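Worked Example 4.2. Read the sequence first, then its structure tokens.
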Amino acid sequence: MVSFQKIKKNKISMIIFFRKHKNTMYFRNGIFRFLILVLLFSGFSCSKRQSLKIQWGESSIVILDFRNLSDSLALQLYNFPVFSSSKFEETYFILPGEKEKIIVLPCEYPSLIHVFIGNNGYSCCVIPKDTLKITVSFTDSSKIQAISFEGNTKSICDYYLEKQQELGYHDLRIPLNRVSGDPDDILKNTDSLLNTELSFIKNFPGKNQLPEWFVKTEISQITYLCNSSKYSREAYITKRLKKTFNPNPDYYRSVNTLKIDNQDAIYSYWYYYFLKSHLVHRKLKLEGLSTKDWMDLTTKTALEQASLNLSNDVRDIFSYDYLYSYLKWTKNLDDFDSIFSAGKSNFANQEYLTILTKYRNELTDSLVQKRNDEVSTSSAKSLKANDPIPYFYLQDIEGIYFTPENFKDKIVYINFWATWCKSCIESIPHKNNLIEKYKDNKEVVFLNICISSDNETWKKILKEKPMAGTNLFANENWSTIIGQNFGIDALPAYFLIKNGKIVKPFCDSPLNIEDDFQLIME
């Protein structure tokens, strides 16, 4: 077997070579494709007794094998990393006839990933140095007929798939957000979902086939996500919507019984998400602070709270991630050096200090300045909550022009789509069902803005598959402007607007947006 060290050394050049030569005769004849798959599978496979120690700088491979794909579709993959340094989120367009997609993502410890194939979402798990193969079979009409998994996390992926089929969702956040903003409704819904999820894994027929570390992690994921949801719903209602929130004494009872220093939750993304709210954000008044003051205060508080409340690996990971995030943000290396020096005593494992020191030594004042200039330029183009909706001047199918001024006093749900986007077309019935529910509400407007498409094809699709709401078309020039101003790099994309200002950029699809509607209309 080829050693992983040798594979790792050549991984980057291998991927570059793959992209460079994918259209040559070697690739078309299958010779190169065969060699790269042999290399990937041999180099990234691992034994069943996979080490669960954090493996710095390692990766995982996800190979999607498409069977009988006759139409284009969007493919999205993103992970839920304990370390923000390992964040991965990419969108791809798969063309008819494409057999597979090979994705390399950072993976230094077992991690949950979500894979969206068209409109269908799936939860999976990856581990370092492993290859997860996902085989997707399609019907003649390009609907997903079957999905299966190969790799050392097969039993975990099968568990997720069976849970999705049984409970009706792939992501627990979906049903958590389906209730109104009433505290009693949130409490009842959250506790019910918590019990349902825990009952499922407790009674799962294949539980004995699941690794012990995964069962502990999954229980932690469920428990801390449900309790984090109570925090986040309160914050959203009070801070974003500026409304009162008066929960009864039972609302936070389950939160108060949670184990704060939980070594069984070391690989749980939602555990650390909960700790950030519980130990840091809820203890501070952060409104009105500058970005620097906000970062200084949250990082120092996180290090103090970690020292007081956490131990061993949990304290190391929690402290590391705050310091790493500060280093990636800071505009002044002296500020980081000061906080880093004060926080070194938090670490039981010196390896974390070694990694942070390495990242720090790679930076100079000039590199930090250049990075911040690039971030400033990028941030200027990124829409945030309360930003005014970017201007447009677009025609409907009758040739009538519309601008944001036409909807200044309305709640507006914008659907950006394209005629070549299969996921966009498939979601038309869901959009129409949503619009039907709100047809008598004069305060809500549904905009369907077609971009990067041919005008005649747009008209033809609207005739064949009528889409309710106001349909606008953006020509080539306006498509470019809209794409830049709204920051759109994948379709479909949805925005929620109220009174001319952004409430939620890149918000949920028509299937899951109603909870937000209810909240902003209350």
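Now turn to a second chain, presented in exactly the same format:
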Amino acid sequence: MRTQSRSPAGSHRLLILLCCSLLIAASPSFAARRAHGKAAPSKSGAAGQPSNSSAAKPSTAPAAKPATTPSSNAKPSTTPSTGGANNAGNKNVNNSGNTNIHNSGNTNINNSKNVNVNNNTNVNINNSRNTVVVVNPRPYPRPPYAYGGHSYYAYHPYHYHPYTPYYWGPAYHPWGAVVVVMAATAVVVSVNSQPYYYDQGVYYVQSSSGYTVVAAPVGATVTTLPPAAQTVVVTETTNNYYYGGTYYEKSAGGYTVVPPTAGTVVENLPDGAKEEKIGDVTYMKVGEAYYQPIQKDGKNMYEVVDVKTD
């Protein structure tokens, strides 16, 4: 075996080359160039180099996440605007809903009901049935009809004819009828500190379903008579005015509701009158007043009866 020997000059050159290689390898530009050369295969998508692709993923993910993080951070900035949309939605839907439905409902229904209920609480319905007959001073030309411990006095002989309710026009409503809305022309009439609503000859009180028509309370005074009121003779010197089962007499304040006077003759009775058979005689009853069917001047009419207890 031969041993190859090296000259001192060749050894020096080899040592210099080795030192230069070490210096070049240690320089930053060479390290960056070397790293760039290793990352290139991952960009080309070369297979079989998991080390390069794993090295590329960490570098890519941090770059993408900071870019997406601000956009995800932008959601809080959009959340206020979304919240603004919700608030606006609440203003446009809920608040305006409250204004248009509940508040206006309170204005149109509840408030008006509260006003009407408060003004009409403790209504004494019995006041509207104060129809006790006033005794006529004129003597009766015939004896009364007596039955069941009562005597029924009348100036005209009994003459039965069928009862037909009379219609006084569109403004008239029979007792017990209910209207939901009170007419704007109605006025408040107070009797014994109790208010009633009066409109064109009809009297109302508040009820759970609206306004209920009742008989005119005795003592109520109105400034004008209903348009279809009729003049009726009470005595030789006294006249009353009759409309819808109600009697008025002239007073200082206008026209005051009074009870019917025995012997008063009227041509018509209101809707709601009831036939009542007493013995052999059929009377008509309006409120608490009895009417005897008669015939006068060839017309079917009714006379207010004076009922006395024997």
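Notes for the reader: DSSP finds three helices and 18 strands in the chain. The helical segments are 8-26, 28-44, 50-119.
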